[in-house]
Every structure is written in structure tokens, then in C-alpha cells.
Amino acid sequence: MKFHITTFGCQMNVHDSQWLARALESRGWEETGAEDAQVYILNTCSVRDKPEQKVYSELGRVAAHLRRDENVFAAVGGCVAQQVGRGFFERFPFVKLVFGSDGIAGAPNALERIAAGREERAALLDFVTLYEEREQPDQPVAADESRQAFVNIMQGCDNFCAYCIVPYTRGRQKSRTPEAILDECRLLVEGGVREITLLGQNVNSFGLDKGGVGVSFAELLRSVAAIPGLDRLRFTTSHPKDIAGEVIRAFGELPNLCPSLHLPMQAGSDKVLKAMRRKYDMERYLSIVDGLRTARPDISLTTDLIVGFPGETEEDFQQTLDMVERVGFESSFSFKYSDRPGVAAVNMEPKVPAEEASERLLRLQTLQNNITRECLKNLVGARTDAFMEGLSRMQDGDAVSWKGRDPAGRIVNVSMSETAGLTGMMVPVRIVEAKKHSLVGERTGEPW
Ligand code: 5AD
Ligand code: SF4
After folding, report:
1. Cis amide prior to 51 (ω within 30 degrees)
2. What pLDDT, in 10s, does the model give residues 232-253?
């Protein structure tokens, strides 16, 4: 069977799709381009914007392929699948499987049964209370030459921030066991992986649910960092209310823990944070930032911000701008608040008019671009290692341009004579130029 996966949304979805692809390959299936596929899998996200529309228009495209081959069918997974559920079957009869994030473990077998005609349709939408281990595919999930891998440490979220749909679509928090996580990490590193990103909706509360066995996130981090051969360790996402002092200090103690942290602030006004049910205030946020910078002065901080949350005044928004400047985030993702079905903020008033929210977003993004530019400019002259991800899309001149990342995750483009063979290698570089969102490096030593 030939399949094609389209993924929307966060790194968890990207990772889920990678796992699903390897699990299907273990069954003899083959991943192909959209044109040749017999099975179309859409892994969806409903955090923002108009996610359902996006999925429906993708399914419209699948319908066109159906005309060519009537055995073609589709599966819809992820957050939109969890919300719309069996509704997809009525609207798009060629959708034969829907699965939520807890149902994905059963998706490969369900797809196999449907493809073999042993089952007409299936809906894997139940939430589980404990983390369900997934089968290990024949090929590790990060068998590619990038030598980077994601590892799930938990699923779901218990926080119910007032704007967020995640607790409804991904269910309650379920931690995976530390043994299973460590086994997977060791296996990956033995297989050549040099960089691991631990994934969870709120990694700082790892182990604090029914699946916990008394191992904290800080302890888990230490154990993973100690795996011989692991050059870079990252984790995402963090919630400021849960980040422990031990985790903050780990940035100064674990040499392979990368000097970057994504710490969603969402807003700079205590009043708005309270309405968002974030359970921290700016004083606490700033003390975390101080702690991080004490532990690791070169740490790069990034964040998520929402503008136009119900009740946000111009003064509240001004506080967000002030905080963005004060913390000096190297980059941020900023979004206009949008109602998600069933979340608490839907009933909060007054709503901020759309034009006002757009105008605030623009002001915020202009400020951020200036700060980003300053941060990158300050790195010119620094020496570091760039972990090569492949050829860069932009090529200019005779030398070949490669794209890599420094330990903080910044893109570093390096011109080199090699046309192949450097992906997955560390190249020592000196930063010679700062672009708008990336750096340019000059090779200073032998790749390792
Ligand atoms: N409206 C706008 N942004 C949202 N996010 C989550 N829910 C919403 C919403 N309803 C943003 C938050 C979160 C990121 C993943 O998406 O900033 O951190
Ligand atoms: Fe959503 Fe808040 Fe959970 Fe993050 S911590 S997934 S924003 S509910």
C-alpha cells in the first residue's frame, strides 16, 4: 500500500506522523508523494485559526484523486479528528478512519484492516487514562541522516488555560514511564542520533499524574543527558508555573542541555494572565528569567504571546510590549486570540475588535523583529558548532550553502565546497553575519 501523510500543527503532531509512517513501513507499506498515494492520512491541529476549513479543503483535494482510483481512502487524525469525530464519515464517505491523539497507537492496525477490506470504517476516539506504549517500528523513528529525534514523554494537558482547546482534544495528562523514555533515548543514540528533543504539552509537570512513579522532570532530564554520545538535548513545551528550580539550574550543570528555552508568557499583564488562568504573574516570570540567566548567561529565550484576549485593554497590551522588551526574547510566536469551541474564554467579555487585535499584533511583531535583529547582531564574531541539517534552500555563488543550527537552535548558513556528506555533522564555525532571522557562519575547523 502506498500512503501519504500531511501534517498540521505542533512538533507532537510531526513526531506522531513520523512514528505512524515508520509503523506502516514495518507492515510493508510505502510512503509516497501525494499524487501516487492510495491512503491519505491527515494529521490535524485545532489550536488556532480555522483548522476545520483547512482539513476540509485538503479532503477536497483527496476527492480529486478518488476519481482516478476508487479504492483510494483517507484517514483523519489529531485534534480536529478528536473534535469532529464520526462527523467526517458523513461529510466525506471516503474517510474510513478517524483517530485522536490517544487513538494513534491503534491506527496502523486499523489502517491495515481497512485496506484489506476486513473493516469498513473505524473511529479511535477514546481517551486513555495511562500513557499507552506504542509498538516499536522496525526502523527507529529517527533513522534518517539528520541524526535528530523527538521523544514523547507524556500526552495531554491538565491546565485548562482559558483560551486553549488542548485539554479537550488531547485529554488529561499522562506521563510515560521513565524506563520506557530512557530505553527509547538509548536506542536512538546507539543508532547514531546526536540530538534529542523531549516532547510534552507541559514537560515541567512530568510525573505528576497517575502515570508518575516519583521521578521528576529534572531527574529525567539528568538521566537522558547522561547517555554517552548524546551531543544535544532539548525539551518543549514548558509552563512557567511548573518549572522547578532544579530544571533552571540544570541549564548551568548539564553541558549537553542546549542553551535555549521556549517559555510561553502569553501576556505581560497580571490581570490578563489571571483571566487566562495561567497561575503565574510577571514577578514570578521575571524571577524565572533571572534564574535562567544566572545559570546560563547565554541562554536564548523564546515565547508564545496572545494579543486581544477578551478584556485586554491598550494598557494591558502596553505591558506585554514592555515585558517583551525587558526579557529580550530572541524570537516569539504571536497570535490573535480566537475563540475555540468549549473553552472558558468564549464566554469572557468584552471581546477585542478584530481590527484592534490586528493592529496590536503588528506593533508587537515590529518590536519583536527589532529585538531579534539586535540579538542576532550581537552574535557576530562568536565561535560555535553548527549541526548540519542539509543543503540550504537558498544557494548563491559557486560554493555550496549548507544549513545548520547552533546549540541554541538558531539557523546558521555555511558555505562549503562539499556537495554531500555533511548532514548530521557538527561544523565548527565563526559567525560572520546576521540576517533578519538567521546567521551566516564561516567554517573554522574539521567537521566532527
Ligand atoms: N487563540 C490564540 N492563540 C492560541 N494559542 C492557544 N490557543 C489559542 C487561542 N484560542 C496559542 C498559545 C499557545 C500556542 C501553542 O498557541 O500562545 O502557547
Ligand atoms: Fe493549552 Fe495551557 Fe495546556 Fe499549554 S498549558 S496545552 S496553553 S491548556
Report:
1. no
2. 999 999 999 999 999 999 999 9
Ligand 2 binding pocket includes 439 (Cβ within 6 Å): no
Which ligand has an atom closest to residue 154 CA? 2
CA of 206 to the centre of ligand 2 (A): 14
Any domain includes 61 = yes
**Against a cut of 0.85, is the pTM above it?**
yes
CB 11 within 8 A of CB 150: yes
Q: Which ligand is nearest to the CA of 306?
A: 1
Burial class (CB in 10 A: 0-12, 13-18, 19+), 371: middle
- HSE-up of residue 388 (Cα within 13 Å, Cβ side): 27
Half-sphere exposure of 369 (CA within 13 A, CB side): 8
Q: DSSP secondary structure string, 38-65?
A: SEEEEEE--SSS-HHHHHHHHHHHHHHH
Q: What is the mean pLDDT of the chain?
A: 95
Residue finishing a domain among 196, 223, 258: 258
**Structural domain of 423:** 383-443
Q: From the CA of 345, which ligand is nearest?
A: 1
Same domain (yes/no): 244, 151: yes
Atom of ligand 2 nearest to the CA of 266: 7
Half-sphere exposure for 26 (CA within 13 Å, toward CB) = 16
Distance (Å, whole) CA 316 – CA 318: 5
Low-confidence ranges of the chain (pLDDT < 50): none
Q: Does residue 79's CB lie within 6 angstroms of at least one atom of ligand 2?
A: no
Binding site for [4Fe-4S] cluster, by residue number, is: 10, 45, 79, 157, 161, 164
Is 373 a member of any domain?
Answer: no
164 lines ligand 2 (CB under 6 A): yes
Binding site members: 10, 45, 79, 157, 161, 164
pLDDT (0 to 100) of residue 141: 66
Length of the chain: 448
Residue 288 Cα to ligand 2 middle (Å):
19
Among the candidates 107, 124, 141, a domain finishes at: 124
CATH of the domain at 82: 3.40.50.12160
Residue 201 C-alpha cell reads as 504539552
134 and 55 within one domain? no
